[in-house]
């Protein structure tokens, strides 16, 4: 399953990498990709959306529903 969330605050490649690493640590995530241009992060797997949001916010970014 693919889940996409809107992320605010990414300004560079390092930001994308930070978010991807945080999302890959979430249980049931097999792959993660962040894109600062579209302000989205997409994950493959079957994680809880609330857990994804928490991981991104813990990394210092804002998630929009």
Overview of this protein structure:
- This protein has one domain (2-64): Alpha-Beta Plaits (2-Layer Sandwich), CATH 3.30.70.100.
- A four-stranded antiparallel β-sheet has the order 2-3-1-4, with helices on one face.
- It has 65 residues and is an alpha+beta fold.
- The protein has helices at residues 13-24, 49-58, and strands spanning 2-8, 29-35, 40-45, 62-64.
- The longest helix is centred in the first third of the chain and has 12 residues, at 13-24.
Summarize the structure.
The protein is built from two helices and four strands, in the order E-H-E-E-H-E. The protein has helices spanning 13-24, 49-58, and strands spanning 2-8, 29-35, 40-45, 62-64.
Text of the CATH class = Alpha Beta
Q: Given the helix and strand composition, which structural class is it?
A: alpha+beta
Distance between the termini: 18 Å
Q: Quick check: average pLDDT?
A: 97
**How much of the residues is beta strand, in percent?**
35-45%
Question: Based on the structure, what is the oligomeric state of the protein chains?
Answer: single chain
Estimate nothing, just give the exact number of structural domains: 1
Point out poorly predicted stretches: none
Properties at a glance:
alpha+beta; Alpha-Beta Plaits; four-stranded antiparallel β-sheet
Fold blueprint:
Elements lengths: L1 E7 L4 H12 L4 E7 L4 E6 L3 H10 L3 E3 L1
Antiparallel strand pairs: 1-3, 1-4, 2-3
């Amino acid at each position: 399953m693919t889940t996409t969330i809107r992320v605010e605050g990414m300004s560079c490649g390092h930001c994308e990498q930070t978010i991807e690493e945080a999302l890959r640590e979430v249980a049931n995530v097999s792959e993660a990709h962040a894109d600062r241009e579209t302000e989205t992060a997409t994950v493959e797997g079957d994680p809880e959306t609330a857990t994804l949001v928490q991981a991104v916010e813990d990394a210092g970014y804002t998630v929009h529903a």
